[in-house]
């Protein structure tokens, strides 16, 4: 008699999963919806391209696996949180269909079939970008609070083990419409932090990752220190990105002034880095020596015509939301400080009065799930 445990043990690697359909293709691999035959659950399988197949990208690889994919696996194995995408399984196999087609089309001596590595992850129904762009989705302030809390929780889980995500965007937050869970994904740009250089300004040793590239983070969510080409930066770049994500989720304007009411939109929807800097300064004011002393020493810093820090930000943009949700304005403003050292940590954000004391209370995950479902026709 074959027991259930024995059956589970026997179903390993490729045989454990049945591909249901193709979902998408990215720079480093293809993603499929699959069925886990050991338990009947849906999973997502990311079949990685070899480093040679993605040779047009930067970064190289090890053993046929691109460095970006190695980073992803490292993060997903190191971080344990429901708000951070984790690895269910990893296996190597040869795609027989593709290999046979390749050999049939070639008259040359058949090449050695190189196994492809496949990453198995929990299946998530959509990303936050799809949710926010859907006209069928209405997000209440309690739902927004619950969703932001999950995003901050995921970021804290990364920061707790010294990782900075460096590419938080609406496309890199996945949503489960059955459970109301949000999980961070796409860790190809993630970096583990280390010790700051000698004399570097006022940050702890856990705040820096050495000489790092500033060309990270999807443009609309990129922090000002990166735009000024700082190579020594902290987890505060992720905090800025959370602020821009939250602003994208909030309803704009005031019902008492219908002309101000607008649909959800990215806070900084601009085509270039120069335009982004201009938009940030127009919204938040000019970086001053008093508020951000280190800014003028950054490689690409340049002077702007003086604009004062606005007195009524963010209430002038999110009037009803700020009025109806206690401490929302303070919470959002704290994440979008020009000076990265003035932004709170992810741990401090979770303890903010916006979450702990503010009205309205946070929505349940069941309520979040119900709000998300129209994004995928559910």
Automatic annotation (TrEMBL):
Every Protein kinase domain range: 17-355
Pfam families linked: Pkinase
UniProt KW keywords: ATP-binding, Kinase, Nucleotide-binding, Serine/threonine-protein kinase, Transferase
GO CC annotation: cytoplasm; transcription factor TFIIK complex
InterPro entries on file: CDK, Kinase-like_dom_sf, Prot_kinase_dom, Tyr_kinase_AS
GO molecular function: ATP binding; cyclin-dependent protein serine/threonine kinase activity; RNA polymerase II CTD heptapeptide repeat kinase activity
Domain of life (superkingdom): Eukaryota
EC number: 2.7.11.23
Gene Ontology biological process terms in this record: positive regulation of transcription by RNA polymerase II
Summary of subunit composition and partner proteins: May form a complex composed of at least the catalytic subunit CRK2 and a cyclin.
Stated name of the protein: Cyclin-dependent kinase 2 homolog
